[in-house]
Amino acid sequence: MATKTVLLTGASGFIALHTLDQLLKRNYTVIGTVRSQDKADNITTQFKKDYPNAQLTFAIVEDIGAPGAFNKVFQDHPEIEGVLHTASPVSFGLNEDLKDTYFTPATEGTRNVLEAIQTYGKSVKNVVVTSSLAAVINGNKIGDKTFIHTEETWNPITWEDVNTGLEAYVASKTLAEKLARKFADEKKPSWTLTTINPPFVLGPQKLEFSLTNKTLNTSAEIVNELLYSDPNDTHFFDAPLGTFIDVRDAALVHVLPLENENLSGKRLIPIQDVYNGQKLLNIINKTFPELEGKIAKGSPENADRHAEESNIYYDTSKTLEWTGIKSWITLEESVKDSVRQILDYRSKH
Ligand code: NAP
After folding, report:
1. Per the database entry, which stretches of residues form a coiled coil (predicted)?
2. Which positions of the chain have pLDDT values less than 70?
3. Percent of the chain surpassing pLDDT 90
4. CA of 90 to the centre of ligand 1 (A)
5. To test ligand 1's pocket by mutation, which of 88, 197, 211 has the most ligand atoms within 8 angstroms of CB?
6. Is residue 154 a contact partner of residue 139, using CB atoms and an 8 Å limit?
7. What is the predicted pLDDT for the residue at 3?
8. What is the pLDDT of residue 9?
9. Sheet strands (E) in the chain
10. Ligand 1 atom closest to the CA of 202, numbered from 1
11. CA-based torsion, 53, 55, 60, 66: positive or negative
């Protein structure tokens, strides 16, 4: 029996590889876009081990921001019914032109995929765009207990506010999501739009080859870099501070809109917990006694102390209600699984 065909953009990414796993587990036919044939071959080889009958092919899209980037994919595949647009640059502090590095691929990439769907994607029913919690958090309200961030909240940032790589990322994600929503409002397409607004996404890599480099993708690196911390460091690791979801849950939330019409038009903000560097270190030190004397202990008793002025206050009850999800993978499980995977990989190689 033919199964629903889903296009997954940026299929080589951290979240996307887990999303690909969820899609194949659920028997979808998947077309991934990647930037090189090598990546396509590598991902195919790895996934065929778990899913020998997987209906998985790839299209090469070298630059999502180039005009017409997705036209050929939709011309070649009129059978695509679902689109998960995850591709977007994720690295803060790059010493390059901020507009070229972040803004153009994020916004033009989103416009390109939506225009290609409108023109050629005659079978498309559901479109899911990966936005970010960055598009939800109002930077002027951080630390304000009276301001509760929800599925309705928007970051007021504009491109004119941008001075740093982090701000460029935040603005690009916000403006790309606004562009997608405006497109759907104005064109009144025959497909539904859902955006996913994850916080920092931590957790293990889906495929081992993602562990080849000493540094990992931007968000997984938050845990990895603690494994290189100074064992004599006893300061309170109040930074990094952020909200968290495990990558396997972030992936699941991407797939649900293909199957649940309640999620049409919605913004989903999956958040499990708040972390700081100390909380992560405490989990690592408690779970992996073999790291004693090799990584920092920091100031363990301070883990629950967050600077009030840096907290964000949020309510994700609508996301839970709409998705029917009862619980998320915890920070503790997520960190354990990530560190176990990194240590195993290091001892093998
Ligand atoms: P990732 O591992 O860096 O994946 C990003 C993907 O996008 C990669 O496949 C990358 O291809 C592709 N890509 C980037 N720029 C491109 C371009 N100009 N042309 C073609 N492909 C391009 O990042 P991730 O953490 O999985 O993030 C995936 C999505 O989730 C992004 O939209 C990100 O903004 C969003 N998000 C992530 C987090 C987080 O904490 N990780 C939180 C909120 C939202 P290459 O691998 O070839 O470079």
Report:
1. none
2. 1-2, 94
3. 95
4. 5
5. 88
6. no
7. 83
8. 99
9. 5-9, 29-34, 56-60, 80-85, 126-130, 192-196, 200-202, 241-246, 267-268, 273-276
10. 40
11. negative
* Sheet strands side by side (includes 29-34): 56-60, 29-34, 5-9, 80-85, 126-130, 192-196, 267-268
Q: For residue 237, what pLDDT is reported?
A: 95
Atom of ligand 1 nearest to the CA of 134: 43
pLDDT at 92: 78
In this prediction the pTM is 0.98
Distance 16 CA to ligand 1 centre (A): 8
Is residue 245 lining ligand 1, measured as CB closer than 6 Å?
A: no
Distances (CA, A) of 34 to 22, 23, 127: 18, 17, 18
CATH topology of domain 5-202+244-272+313-328: Rossmann fold (3.40.50)
pLDDT at 2: 54
CB distance 65 to ligand 1 below 6 Å: yes
> Residue 107 has what pLDDT?
98
275 C-beta closer than 6 A to ligand 1: no
Ligand 1 centre to CA of 128 (Å) is 14
pLDDT at 1: 47
- Minimal-distance CA residue to ligand 1 atom 17: 63
> Which tokens sit at 18?
């887990």
In our burial notation (b when 16+ CB lie closer than 10 A, e otherwise), range 208-246 reads eebbeeeebbbbbebbbebbebeeeeeeebbeebbbbbb
Instruction: Identify the CA nearest to 28 among candidates 5, 1, 58.
Output: 5
Cβ of 112 below 6 Å from ligand 1: no
Residue nearest to atom 47 of ligand 1 (CA): 35
